[in-house]
Amino acid sequence: MNLRDAPIRRKLTVAIMLTSTVAVFLTAAVFVGHEKFRWDVGILTLMLIGSLLVARAISAVLQRRISGPILELADTSRTVSVNRDYSVRAKKQGNDELGLLTDAFNQMLARIQTQDEALRKNEEELRRALQSAGAAAEEVRALNAELEDRVTSRTAELAAANQELEAFAYSVSHDLRAPLRHIDAYARILEDEVEKNPADARQNAGRIRQGAQNMGRLVDDLLKLSRVGRVELKPATVRLNAIVDEVLAELKPELANRDIEWRIAELPPATADPGLIKQVFANLISNAVKFTRPRARAVIEIGAEPLDGATAIFVRDNGVGFDMKSAQKLFGVFQRLHRVEDFEGSGVGLHTVQRIVQLHGGNIRANAELDKGATFHFTLKGIGAARSANEK
After folding, report:
1. Is the four-CA dihedral 213, 218, 222, 228 of positive or negative sign?
2. What's the whole-model pTM score?
3. What angle do CA 244, 248, 249 make, to 5 degrees?
């Protein structure tokens, strides 16, 4: 309360004392009944009424100057607390101590509002930063996964290339040297026998030619295998039956004097590199022709059938077959399951077939039984796509 309110407070005290005094005089006048006091009582009564009016006025002034600002501060505090709205301000009702308190309260609200706005802004920036960081982290994870896939793929390719390099080194040191040793040995014998025994000389000359031919075939197979690793696929929609017809036409000289029953079914179209797919059929069909030589009547079947949810092309024969215990070596480089004396070959053809099929997103497998024939199945990723396009 302001010091200027002290006189008012004293006046209020005096008014109360006067009221008490008038009450005493009225009591005395009633009991004494003296005429003299009646005028005094009237005067005192008027004074009492005036004092009461003054006290009421003073009370209203005090309520307006003290209680009003305090209630205003209380209402403002309640609004801020409930609504978290720091933009509201208490109404200043004077320049006294309560007015100064109101100013201080409003300044405090202004500071809190500024800090709250700054905090909200920082929270929004932090939220955006976290979102950006999350997106960046997801992108980094995706890039890492892609990098790991590439590294895995390149590692597998490198391992396969190293295996082929080792096999190539073995071939150069062994398979290529063998025909050369034969050529050298029979050439020396030929020098000694050319005049003494012309018949033996001719036989040895034939062996020299055979050795040279074997070496030539091996070199050709190596070149084909090396090209498969570097070739760029040129896919196109091809009719597989037309490819089979081309291969059979090229094998016609080898089919002379052979009794072969061909069972060729309608094959689905495929999206593939025509040259490479022709090489697949050439290897598989020539193998079927070769390994059915001991049969009086060979049966070679070419067709398509479902296999593990995909359409597989197969080449089946009734030839000598092989033991499935050795099947894991079948697609290795320079791996042969039969003696060179019985069946010629370099051991490169089936590995080349496997590489071509894998380049087309497919797989190849073999099933056989010794002396009862063999079946080779292969799938191509482009068979289903070409068939769907054809159906449309």
Report:
1. positive
2. 0.49
3. 115
